[in-house]
Design goal:
Layout (H helix, E strand, L loop, with lengths): L1 H20 L9 H4 L6 E7 L2 E14 L4 E12 L8 H15 L4 E4 L4 H5 L4 E3 L2 E7 H4 L8 E3 L5 H9 L4 E2 L3 H7 L6 E7 L2 E10 L2 E11 L1 H15 L5 E6 L4 H9 L4 E4 L2 E5 L2 H11 L5 E4 L4 E5 L4 E5 H8 L7 H10 L19
Parallel strand pairs: 3-4, 11-12
Antiparallel strand pairs: 1-2, 2-3, 2-8, 4-14, 5-14, 6-12, 6-13, 7-9, 9-10, 10-11, 15-16, 16-17
Helix pairs in contact: 11-12
InterPro entries: Acetyltransferase_Eis, Acyl_CoA_acyltransferase, GNAT_dom
GO molecular function: aminoglycoside N-acetyltransferase activity
Protein name: N-acetyltransferase domain-containing protein
Length: about 350
């Protein structure tokens, strides 16, 4: 059985590399899926004993200021070019959704190259991601890169501690952070003061996010000097780089507003409803005591409060728990119907660049 699973995973990886990287190596970019002790999984659809469609997924927990959310990340969806359009991609994603749901994921998330394809299959935009532009005009206002140097293996413990200080993040253990910091084609710098690492930042990841600072940790006076160093290295080849910032990092958003950096507020990912029992538990962690959530079917949740009960279905559930760009309109309807303020909703999750698959 172990040999069969290994062979299946190798065949899936070969298909991913063919479709997503034109045959180039792929596994080192996703150690939590492909390294020997990885907790992530690969699902496949086979025809005539050949893997014809595949994807990767991993069970994770999103920490937010008001509730933790059990989720599944799905990615690296690939179908053999010769049989596209026959439903194999839809099938492998649907089967993965079911497995994630049965393992207790309140929702599944993915990062889509073709959002319309996923929307036609029940996925909707989810959450908020802010991206700011660093270019010649505002980079001159960045602090000097004093104390900034390339990260080493000995810094990984400090980097993990800084990462874990974020209120919105994917929960990780130290060993997972260490593995992710080893992905190819990534620049990682730290800021050191008095012998202590007080900030870090990463740009690039394999063949993705090449001009994007996608993960960082520390106070602005420790991270912005690193941004200055990254810009100094990048400016000879690029006229701009980008920095991802969660909604929960108000000091950073205020800084970029102050320096009049161009920015955009986009969606975090695409999402699909998972286990409604797990989702109801997530709601209850964020709701006041006088309001309760209960799963009434695989597609519905009831929110009950002092004034009445409101049944939410499928997309309404996702739009209440974490709508795109923080839109509270569904939450406001719930507040009116149940007769209670819901300050804990919507949630503010964020997925840093090293966690996407």
């Amino acid at each position: 059985m172990t040999t069969q699973l290994t062979t299946q995973k190798e065949a899936a990886l070969a298909l991913m590399e063919l479709v997503l990287r034109d045959g180039r190596s792929f596994s080192a970019e996703y150690p939590l899926i492909f390294q020997s002790n990885a907790t992530g999984r690969v699902e496949t659809v086979e025809e005539n004993d050949e893997v014809v469609s595949t994807c990767a997924w991993i069970a994770r927990t999103l920490a937010t200021p008001t509730a933790d959310v059990p989720v599944a990340f799905i990615g690296s969806v690939a179908t053999a070019p010769s049989i596209r359009g026959r439903g194999y991609g839809s099938r492998v994603v649907a089967e993965t959704l079911e497995k994630a749901k049965h393992q207790g994921a309140a929702l599944s998330m993915l990062w889509a190259d073709d959002p319309e394809w996923y929307q036609a299959r029940g996925w909707i935009p989810f959450g908020t991601e802010n991206v700011y532009v660093i270019e010649h005009g505002n980079a001159i206002l960045l602090p000097e890169p004093v104390g900034v140097r390339p990260a080493t293996y000995d810094d990984h413990g400090a980097i993990h501690s800084l990462y874990s200080s974020h209120v919105s993040r994917t929960l990780r253990i130290k060993e997972e952070t260490q593995a992710l910091l080893g992905v190819p084609n990534m620049q990682t710098y730290v800021c050191e003061r008095d012998g202590k690492v007080v900030g870090y930042a990463c740009m690039g990841r394999g063949e993705d996010l090449g001009q994007v600072i996608h993960e960082w940790g520390g106070e602005p006076d420790a991270v912005l000097p690193i941004v200055s160093q990254i810009w100094a290295k990048a400016r000879n080849e690029h006229d701009r780089i980008f920095m991802m910032v969660p909604d929960t990092e108000a000091d950073y958003r205020a800084y970029f507003k102050f320096v009049r950096a161009e920015g955009a507020q986009g969606v975090l990912a695409m999402a699909h409803l998972g286990c409604t029992k797990a989702m109801a538990q997530t709601f209850n962690a964020a709701l006041p005591k006088e309001v309760t959530a209960s799963a009434t079917s695989e597609k519905t949740i009831d929110i009950a409060g002092p004034k009445g009960t409101l049944r939410l279905t499928d997309h309404e559930i996702l739009l209440a728990i974490c709508p795109p760009r923080g839109d509270r309109r569904v939450v406001e309807v719930i507040e009116q119907e149940v007769g209670a303020a819901l300050p804990g909703l919507p949630l503010s999750p964020f997925v840093w660049g090293l966690d996407s698959i």
